[in-house]
Amino acid sequence: MDDEVVQRVFHEGGREYFQQQPSTTSSSSSILQSLPLHVSFDRGYYLLVKSIQELREKKNGLVTVGIGGPSGSGKTSLAEKVASVIGCTVISMENYRDGVDEGNDLDSIDFDALVRNLEDLTKGKDTLIPMFDFQQKRRIGTKAIKSASSGVVIVDGTYALHARLRSLLDIRVAVVGGVHFSLLSKVQYDIGDSCSLDYLIDSIFPLFRKHIEPDLHHAQIRINNSFVSSFREAIYKLKCRSEFHMLYLAFSFIEMYLRPPSASEEARINDWIKVRQSGIRYYLSLGDQRIVDKNFIIRPKAEFEVGRMTLGGLLAWGYSVVVSYKRASTSIINGNLSVSLETIDTLGETFMVLRGTDRKTVGAESLKMGINGQWITKSYLELILERKGVPRLNTPPPLSNTSVTSTQEKVIAAPRPIRTTPNSVTRLEDLSQPWTRSPTKSKMEPVLATWHFIASEPPLADNAVIDFSHEATTGSSTYRDTMKLAPMPDSYDLDRGLLLSVQAIQALLENKGLPVIVGIGGPSGSGKTSLAHKMANIVGCEVVSLESYFKSELVKDFKYDDFSSLDLSLLSKNIGDIRNCRRTKVPIFDLETGSRSGFKELEVSEDCGVIIFEGVYALHPEIRKSLDLWIAVVGGVHSHLISRVQRDKSRVGCFMSQNEIMMTVFPMFQQHIEPHLVHAHLKIRNDFDPVLSPESSLFVLKSNKHVAYQDILKILDPSKFCSSVQNFIDIYLRLPGIPTNGQLTESDCIRVRICEGRFALLIREPIREGNFIIQPKVDFDISISTVAGLLNLGYQAVAYIEASAFIYQDGKILIEVDHLQDAPSPYLQIKGVNKEAVAAAGSTLKLDGSYTTKSYLQIVLERLPAVERSSSGIHSQQAARLQELVEFIQSQGSSSSSDSSQSREASPIEGVIEDMQTRIKRLERWHTINTVLWTFLMSALVGYSLYHRKRQ
């Protein structure tokens, strides 16, 4: 971030410690120069981390960050995720309460103490921050914060951007959305258009517009958090009655359910609002969002805190408390697993509940504990309603059918948003209403949609080349064949789509019985595979990738996105066997060798009555007619690549529409995939950003220190150990004309990795913090026609790196030893999702002090003479081989996009590919021999040691 942008970061009250005139000659771009009015949660997280890093390099002393916003918007979640990467101190403003009334009340916050603490830290002094206990409703002590360990301090709270604090903050972040927007949309849906949005906000969030919203307009980074609740990281519960009674009560909650004013007396608990009171805190969830599968209760993890006045506002609008009970709980926690005893006063019973984030672990623990009691899958609410019935509907207070009068409008008029300078935020005045209070939809669908079945015509005889209906020999007019799911009328985000997908499977099992066959289709990188495996984790079923049905001869021609590359006859047989509950063998395809390596048996049973097929062509007419549920997924890296191309093109003064880019980069999608997606029962738009999101972070430590093979084995679990060998080529594509400082940098390039015959994409460089590289968990596969499309759009191949990798892993830690071509020594990478586990592995291997965060492109460039490090490429010795790769990609890409299956002449690059495959085989043989010899040597040593002990 250059000085000019740093100065702008501090506008309107920020700490200004740069006194020199801003530089106007620098051409380097900054992450905040084109910051839009508001960004997604994932994008905001990335911007905040990069802003902290760049600001930390520009100044001496403490970097202070304020994250403000309404209750339930996601402030605390953002602060925790940034702290997990940066390793900073988070100060919660809730610990500065000096009263027990409404948490959003400005008078209940001890600003004087918070200002003193921040001033001490900015001056390099240690300080004591207060600690507040919400169960005891009082301060219980203090906590020491050392200035030396607090290079970055984040203040998290509703009033974190208040005028008393803004002069002490370097970076100001506003977060809106979450349950705040969702609750507004829910209430609007329940009560209709009987009042204005402003009046509704003042009723449910009475302090927001007066005391909170005006401060949010001072933020430099503005986040609209659409995330509400998610089953991506669900909690799995097993519950049964218990004969044990608690000796003491560790926690006590009051849980209540609010029925909408327009509800009938039927027990539609999905439309009710749940409020949980814990001490002086209130947590809210919209509807009974849970999934029941066999004995498991599966719930989303997220909880959202609201103020006490919000509950009063809902009651004033006619919501009524229909059920209320006290839940006393005591728990024993072991890692990600907990065992709780919970007593419900209304039922007079105690229940034992096992909770965990992994379904198999929870199930295994129940067997280990020897619990033989009957599992209960009903919620406490359902048990209470069964015993006492649904409370009768009282007459709600009357609601005005007329709009609010003009005098009322004047009384509750919103304060005028503070206008920022034009170079900070563009087109702010074009918005019809402030960004801080706009619900995501003016008309919100019910919290949980309901699946319906419709009658269809009996299946006709199929005269197509591939007959998928031959399995229906038991009668074409059966209920199963004539009843179909009615498509959902709208599209949904990934979180709601995951919930609806599982509910559709359950509806099919209940109404049509076994088996249920699901198809998930969409473009490459849209999130199909991720969604399929998350559904399988919840339902407990099998996932089959259509890539398993590739024909070897077409895969060798890189025709992955060609429908003719699938072995449709085998796919037809497998689906027919599954339909008739017969055991079948599905193929296993080895992408490394480009051929089928074997088969896997699949059988439909009560334990596994669902099979999910996922792939680009899963919704093709020849396939989907034999499936029960059709799911389309769009977005993900597919849309991010289009945005990246648009950004690059605009930087060189060329503007292209999304449709023009789509036709060039994804020709097969537009012609042969997209037309099938419109017929899906469920359409999911994947707005989740796997490149930026902290949810997909992979922590990496890289070192060029030599480590012996036996030392690597010591830190991996031998029972789960596996290894492999890969060769890969990284090609860097850059658009000519993008401003640079004369050097080739990774941030200006799109990296395409060729590995095992696949093409994977990296469109944004990772975050580097300390010794760690934080990058996405997975690469995103694309077709060769997409790479050819990028070349046709003007991207030029400016560098390539060839390497071989030895990979060792045990499911928690992955260790990769990369041998770069022409590099004097290999590089070792330790990868994992747990930062502490990766750091511990590095310390065990004694790598401390040898880490580097440089990319392989940087490493190769630094080894070259200075005259050969220009932005136009690496050096002339690679030019010939790089040109061969480009010509090969363009020839194959053009033939794929035109559906040409004609034979082609041998290209020089084919020799390179064949040479790579030969080297892979040679490395594999070497690795196998090495493993056998090492195992023999260790066995001999162990045997000799045991023999020596026995003699002694």
UniProtKB/TrEMBL annotation:
Question: Which residues are in the AAA+ ATPase domain?
Answer: 61-211, 514-660
Q: Which UniProt keywords apply?
A: Membrane, Transmembrane, Transmembrane helix
Question: Which SUPFAM superfamilies does this UniProt record tie to the protein?
Answer: CYTH-like phosphatases, P-loop containing nucleoside triphosphate hydrolases
- On whether Cell membrane is a keyword of this UniProt record, the answer is no
Gene3D superfamilies in alphabetical order: P-loop containing nucleotide triphosphate hydrolases
Q: Which SMART domains match?
A: AAA (SM00382)
MF terms from GO for this chain are: ATP binding; kinase activity
Residue ranges spanning the membrane: these are 926-947
Q: Which residues form a coiled coil?
A: none
The name of this protein is AAA+ ATPase domain-containing protein
Q: Which organism is it from?
A: Acer negundo
